[in-house]
Write a structure and sequence with these properties.
This protein has a single domain (about 5-205), classed as Glucose-6-phosphate isomerase like protein, domain 1 (Rossmann fold, 3-Layer(aba) Sandwich), CATH 3.40.50. Helices cover about 50% and strands about 15% of the residues. It has helices at about 5-20, 25-40, 50-65, 85-95, 100-105, 135-145, 160-165, 180-205; strands at about 45-50, 75-80, 115-120, 125, 130, 150-155, 165-170.
Length: about 210
């Protein structure tokens, strides 16, 4: 029998509760520590992602720059690499989509800066256009070679970004072993709001 809408809503919310409870507190703590260390050092945070994760990356950069304001304290320096459509299309046209984030970091990223990569699959898997999120993987590799750190918010098995990152959080599976792109992208928003609210507290205490 087809699932009723009420049953679907109930299942989705139950899975969301299970995912929240299964999320690694230790991994989130490590991500916050890396980002706050960069803030205390006056470093810049760059964010990037594709598709829905690009929107999440823009939102995260906004919240890092604005939500964390504390009067009389230095402000976070946060930049989304997803927001300039003209630049993104020019880079795609001239050097290829796999380099759209790397080329923006070149000449801007300095040692101690942090690149935050948001990706559902973390650079694993492929579709009609080839391997997913290789622009994130190449940017992460570039950042680390230039002395930067990489934070990854990912899903499924975390992919290459999970293996590369200095700190990462993977959206876990539900108890039934289920996940989905909506779950992953939705929890990336939950995590990023949690991260920013804790950073605000830390800035107040600093």
């Amino acid at each position: 029998m087809p699932t009723s809408t009420h049953e679907f809503v109930d299942r989705y919310l139950r899975e969301s509760a299970e995912i929240a409870l299964a999320t690694s507190r230790e991994d989130l703590t490590r991500v916050i520590d890396v980002i706050f260390e960069a803030y205390r050092g006056g470093r810049t945070l760059f964010t990037c992602g594709n598709g829905g994760s690009a929107a999440n990356a823009s939102h995260l950069a906004c919240d890092l720059a604005k939500f964390t304001w504390v009067d009389g304290k230095p402000r976070f320096k946060a930049v989304s690499l997803c927001d300039n459509a003209a630049l993104l299309s020019a880079l795609t046209n001239d050097v290829g989509f796999n380099r759209i984030f790397l080329e923006q970091l070149d000449g801007r990223l300095e040692a101690g800066d942090v690149l935050v990569c948001l990706s559902v699959h973390g650079g694993s898997g492929a579709d009609q256009a080839g391997p997913w999120s290789q622009n994130l993987v190449s940017a992460a590799d570039f950042a680390q070679k230039r002395g930067g750190k990489v934070v990854a918010l990912v899903g499924y098995d975390g992919g290459a970004l999970r293996q590369m990152a200095d700190a990462s959080v993977v959206v876990p599976l539900s108890r039934a072993g289920h996940t989905s792109t909506p779950h992953v992208e939705g929890f990336h928003e939950v995590y990023h709001h949690l991260i920013c609210e804790r950073l605000l507290e830390l800035c107040r205490e600093a």
